[in-house]
């Protein structure tokens, strides 16, 4: 700690004054643990008695508290004694030296999260993840503490390869797998590699995730939107496109339409890749959450020579975990290792999480919760918005509710926000304007908020209509 001990008087009194000042101005926050007296005495070059006397004085004055086995810490609301000298936040001094409550904070409207893009963060398996972190830390070797392998830690690549082959039908070994921070980062790396290899454009789904268009453009590639229908990307339209070096798509559960790429479209895409030598980029979005049947296997598993598979834990665990992966054909694999992977401890923790079966258990529990929540949203929509139709298969963390002609989805989004509901108009994801609708996310929507959220959407639509 940086403490000013200048001035006159006994050293223990000057130390107590310096600590008191640090507490008042916020440099020492509530519940902050102070150094043991022996440590602080050595740091300040004084006797231990000086520190213990200063601590004792501040404990008596109410600034500090001591707990057996926990040391000395700053007391909550320390300094908010009755004097103007120690007036704390949230209180206002009076002429008598007493304090009175300050003004109440401004009330904020409750926000119901019906936007897509997040899993249920309440479901994050904190205890099991903490166990995985501890196991990873306990098993660290000196080699693990050096510079990171740009491909990712071999232990995680081996565990991920086994998982993707077992659960997603991918054709993958550890050598073909590259660890990255997220699916978006993976797609950005692929776009940079395409540009370096001479590609000038990529095809993307329309509607589709806007970040894909942004990272492709940032890599210097022209972005060519290709329409999506109930069978997925219109692969037949690729034949008329020139200079397209890659196609980025979400075959398992298209975002946002909810369509699954049909077998016929899969064959058309692979024919395009054979004819042109182009790269198919498979974003395995929402693949773990299919509710009516087992999810279709990856496109990469059928054609590892033509497809780069991209995935992450952002929609299954949390985007804060920061683990993603790419499985690429041999020609492309070295080109994707142009950036540092996530921290080694995080990689090893996820490997431990996978190997212990914790990831599988978490996904089973999450699937059940999301299926029930989706059913509840669909029931509420049918009851309150009978004219709105729901599209897409029973899967994932979102659905699309069409609004029909004459209704402006952007206006509904704005009115819903005023009513405390965060929802997104499908226009946000469209390059070419199409039928108006709302992309309703239920991943991070609390179960008890379903009815209120849909009721507010109904009210917002009523105001627009």
Descriptive account of the structure:
Residues 9-77 form the HTH gntR-type domain. Pfam families: Aminotran_1_2, GntR. Residues 70-108 are annotated as: Disordered. GO terms for molecular function: DNA binding; DNA-binding transcription factor activity; pyridoxal phosphate binding; transaminase activity. Helix 9 links the parallel strand 11 (279-283) and strand 12 (307-312). An eight-stranded mixed β-sheet has the order 6-13-12-11-10-7-8-9, sandwiched between helices. Strands 14-15-18-17 form a four-stranded antiparallel β-sheet. A two-stranded antiparallel sheet has the order 1-2. The chain is built from 13 helices and 18 strands. The chain is α/β, with parallel strands linked by helices and 465 residues long. It is globular.
